[in-house]
Amino acid sequence: MHTRIVMLVDLDYFFAQCEERRNPSIKDKPVVVCVYSGRTQDSGAVSTSNYIARQHGVKSGIPISLAKKRLEGIDSVFLPVDKPFYKQISDSIMEVLRSYADSFEQVSIDEAYLDVTKKTRNSYVETKRLAKKIKTEIFSQQQLTCSVGVGPNKLVAKIAADYQKPDGLTVVKPENVIRFLAPLPVRSLVGVGKKTEKKLETLNVHTVAHLAKFDVQKLVDLFGRKLGVYFHNAALGLDEDPVEERGDPESIGRISTLKQDTQDLNVILDKAFKLCDDVHTRLLTRKLFYRTVTIRVVGDNLEVHSRSNTLENPTNSLEIFKGEVKQLFEKFFEESDVTARRVGVTVSSFSKKENQQKQITSFFGGSNN
Ligand code: TTP
Ligand code: MG
C-alpha cells in the first residue's frame, strides 16, 4: 500500500464543552452531562464530564448518584444531554473537516479521520500546519477545542490523538512509530479490551513493545488467526484500513472562507461554483441524486444564514445545481444586507436513482400514476 498521512480529530469532552460554550459561566466548575433514566431523580448514567469533574473521578458511564457523591460539597453543574444541540455543532465542524480531506470518515458525533496525503503533498510539515489551521478554525467558528493525532495510518493517528488531551496535537512520523508505541500499555491499541488485556498480562505482555516481540504464532493460537495477526501488526504500528465515508450521508456540502468579506455577488458565485464542482464530484462517486439544494452564508458577525430549494425530481446534474445556487444567492442578497465571510453549498434529500417519472409524463403530456 502507498504511504499515507492520516489525521484523527477528536473534540474534547464534547457534550460538556458544548454546554460550557452555551453558558460560559459554568466553565470553572465541574460540569456533568447526564442521561437521566427518569425512574428516580438521580437514576441514570454520566454521559460525559468536563476535565474539572474528571479530576474528581467523574467520567463517562458512572451512575449519576456516584458522580454526586464524588462531587459532594463542591459547587458543580449537572445537566441533561441535549443531543440536537450537540449534533448541530458537530455537523458544522464535520463539514469543515471534510473540506480539508482527500477522503473523510466520521466515526462518531465528535470524531473523524481525514486522509490528507494528497492535500498536503505527502508532507508531515504541511500536515502539522494543516492540523493547527483546523484547530484554529474550529475554535474561531465554534469556540471548541479538539485533540488531533497524525500518523501513517488510522491506528497510529487514533493513539496519537489520545496521547495529549485536551487541546493536543501529536504528530508521529513513520520513522518514530515503533518508538512512540513501545512504552504504551497494550490497552491503547484499538481492539484490545479488558479481557484481552488480562489474557496478555498473564503472558507478561504489558506494553506494546512486549506485544511486538511476542511470537505471532502464539498470538494466533491464543486469539485465532484474524485477531492474532491483527494484534501483531497493530503492535508494529501497521494498519491498512482505508479512510472512507461510512453509510449514506444525509447531505453533502462544502463551505469555504472568502478571501475577504464581501457583498459582491460575482465574487461569491465564483467561490460557490467551485464548491459546487467539489460537491458534485462527491455526489457522483457515491452515485447519489439530490432534490434539495441549500446555500449558506456566514456573515462578518459569524451569524449563519441558509436558504434552500427542493426540486420536484431527483437529479445529479451539475448545471441544475449551479443554477439553483445562483438563484438562491441572488435572492438572498436581494433580501438581506449581510456581508459574507464564508459561503457554502449543500445538496440533500438523496435517492439512488434519477426519477424518470417526470420526463416520461411530460413527454407523453399526461399523468400516469
Ligand atoms: P468521547 O470522545 O469518548 O469523550 P469526550 O469527547 O467527552 O471526552 P474526550 O475529551 O476524552 O474526547 O465521546 C464523545 C461524546 O460521546 C461525549 O462527549 C459524550 C458521548 N458519550 C456518552 O454519551 N457515553 C459514553 O460512555 C462515552 C464514552 C461518550
Ligand atoms: Mg471526544
Keywords summarizing the entry:
four-stranded antiparallel β-sheet, 23% strand, single chain, binds magnesium ion, five-stranded mixed β-sheet, 369 residues, alpha+beta, binds thymidine-5'-triphosphate, disordered C terminus, globular
Structural summary, described in words:
- With 369 residues, this protein is of the alpha+beta class.
- It contains 14 helices and 12 strands.
- It has helices at residues 14-22, 51-55, 64-70, 83-99, 124-142, 154-163, 177-181, 194-202, 208-213, 216-223, 225-235, 265-285, 318-335, 357-364, and strands at residues 6-11, 31-36, 44-49, 77-80, 103-108, 111-115, 146-151, 169-171, 251-262, 290-299, 304-315, 340-348.
- The strands form 3 sheets. It has a 5-stranded mixed β-sheet with strand order 5-6-1-7-8. A 4-stranded antiparallel β-sheet has the order 9-12-10-11.
- Helix 4 packs antiparallel against helix 5, helix 10 packs across helix 11 and helix 12 (265-285) runs antiparallel to helix 13.
- The longest helix is centred in the last third of the chain and has 21 residues, at 265-285.
- It starts with 5 loop residues before the first strand and ends in a 5-residue tail after the last helix.
- The relative contact order is 0.10.
- The model is unreliable at 358-369 (pLDDT under 50).
- Magnesium ion is lined by residues 10-12, 14, 110.
